[in-house]
């Protein structure tokens, strides 16, 4: 039966060509365009993650091979493509540099340099993030900078929102300095090697001069016009509960002896449609936050709860509970006793961190360490782009996996405080959580989460800094001098990181953003289909025929701006696979410099500035900055237009057209 299906697949194109109805284009082009259309819809609407769409695209192109021209070997070639392997290696090398603490040490210098000057804070943020992103993946750079910038802003009375969009934009612009600056650059290099006239990939510093101009212009813009366009969405004053607007949602209640809740488990409070969460129990002066769902409620317990006023009134009336503030007032007047073992400081939302006393003996120190591990903290965390969208159980699953209680979720400028159990988490969400110090340590070790705390940087082994920087310098040097291809030098650097002990194999696996790897591997066959089916040639012919009034330079600028807009709707890697073959075909038909058009597409796909979903660093700062969706267009649209002119002029100046 399999042989029969294969024979039918091979025979179908011939039969279609013999049909009496002549199609305006070949059936191959129709099939490829249909596949691309479906893929674009999935990329834009994202009913599934974009890496899932990319793999589905790869499978579809293979199954439709007689029309798409993609063989099974070519379909899976993305997994062995130099771009895919180099991106994978750069993720690991970036993690090696991060684990030495060198980035954290640099960020610590920001506070001493910037002080309470907003301009100097902005200058330090952009000045450090931009150049660094040319050699280290920008995702870990932004992940490290978010808590540092946020904490600095709050200490000095600056709105964190004024610094976070510039941080994301600077890291993107810095990625244009070298081929290894972004995964988009590496993918464009691989495609150029396949379809370009030279058959060679981009060299490491192929377009550094243009990247330096773009970064410089972007920096000046962010320090001047962009500074005034960037809104201050989050105030620097107030506790986390104030900033999340939790005053009307958090309170403490006391359980009566005759309450129906005595003896029941905390999870039973979530009965039916009741929107109430218990995030702490105080019993005999001791806070209980671990394993809360299975904890049984005792008479006299003080429950810290998150609920709306309507829900609280219902629970108070039905379950024989008292508001703690009212009970405290009654106790002060002598009408009611306080709950046994009640300690007022356990219900202060801003608890001081435990500071070890050097004069204590070992036993006391051990006891205090254990107490510190049980110390309850309110903390903000950011979920980095990744697999959160695929977790169907959302907040409830997060609480179960991490033994933490989620009190609120900030998504952009929207704060979700009710019906949290029904909320599906997304990359870029900021969670206000309450948990213990040891759980926070585990959260800080998770490379998909950023904790708004800079305590952990002291734990890095600084003696490894020269080794890690030497390895990265060796990778760059060998590639720059063309002693080794970029892929080989990067993989050699990974081996050096592992053998030197800077990274463990487990660290290396966790450092890789597998969503990006599968996305790149999945979309690479699309470029093959575009070329093999003649789709790129057909689209290029249509563009040239419909744009006869445009000069080559105007066409170059149009490709830059068009790619930038398409990148906002699909991923940057998908847009470069779609647009670069077309750009090269257009250049060939116009008899102009194909390399110039390839650069325009590459730079535009690497710098999507108009929305929080256009690039992962934008999504990373979306929640922490409390931005509206349109804030990115407000700041980014003028810069995108400026870069359209600057990049086009730079390409013409350096390479001609």
TrEMBL record:
<dbReference type="Pfam" id="PF03600">
    <property type="entry name" value="CitMHS"/>
</dbReference>
<feature type="transmembrane region" description="Helical">
    <location>
        <begin position="463"/>
        <end position="480"/>
    </location>
</feature>
<feature type="region of interest" description="Disordered">
    <location>
        <begin position="339"/>
        <end position="373"/>
    </location>
</feature>
<keyword id="KW-0472">Membrane</keyword>
<feature type="transmembrane region" description="Helical">
    <location>
        <begin position="26"/>
        <end position="45"/>
    </location>
</feature>
<dbReference type="InterPro" id="IPR006037">
    <property type="entry name" value="RCK_C"/>
</dbReference>
<feature type="transmembrane region" description="Helical">
    <location>
        <begin position="635"/>
        <end position="655"/>
    </location>
</feature>
<feature type="transmembrane region" description="Helical">
    <location>
        <begin position="594"/>
        <end position="615"/>
    </location>
</feature>
<dbReference type="GO" id="GO:0005886">
    <property type="term" value="C:plasma membrane"/>
</dbReference>
<dbReference type="GO" id="GO:0006813">
    <property type="term" value="P:potassium ion transport"/>
</dbReference>
<feature type="domain" description="RCK C-terminal">
    <location>
        <begin position="237"/>
        <end position="321"/>
    </location>
</feature>
<feature type="transmembrane region" description="Helical">
    <location>
        <begin position="538"/>
        <end position="562"/>
    </location>
</feature>
<dbReference type="InterPro" id="IPR036721">
    <property type="entry name" value="RCK_C_sf"/>
</dbReference>
<feature type="transmembrane region" description="Helical">
    <location>
        <begin position="207"/>
        <end position="225"/>
    </location>
</feature>
<dbReference type="GO" id="GO:0008324">
    <property type="term" value="F:monoatomic cation transmembrane transporter activity"/>
</dbReference>
<feature type="transmembrane region" description="Helical">
    <location>
        <begin position="569"/>
        <end position="588"/>
    </location>
</feature>
<feature type="compositionally biased region" description="Acidic residues">
    <location>
        <begin position="360"/>
        <end position="373"/>
    </location>
</feature>
<keyword id="KW-0812">Transmembrane</keyword>
<dbReference type="InterPro" id="IPR051679">
    <property type="entry name" value="DASS-Related_Transporters"/>
</dbReference>
<protein>
    <submittedName>
        <fullName>Sodium-coupled transporter</fullName>
    </submittedName>
</protein>
<keyword id="KW-1133">Transmembrane helix</keyword>
<dbReference type="InterPro" id="IPR004680">
    <property type="entry name" value="Cit_transptr-like_dom"/>
</dbReference>
<feature type="domain" description="RCK C-terminal">
    <location>
        <begin position="366"/>
        <end position="449"/>
    </location>
</feature>
<dbReference type="Pfam" id="PF02080">
    <property type="entry name" value="TrkA_C"/>
</dbReference>
<keyword id="KW-0677">Repeat</keyword>
<feature type="transmembrane region" description="Helical">
    <location>
        <begin position="52"/>
        <end position="70"/>
    </location>
</feature>
<feature type="transmembrane region" description="Helical">
    <location>
        <begin position="169"/>
        <end position="195"/>
    </location>
</feature>
<feature type="transmembrane region" description="Helical">
    <location>
        <begin position="515"/>
        <end position="532"/>
    </location>
</feature>
<keyword id="KW-0813">Transport</keyword>
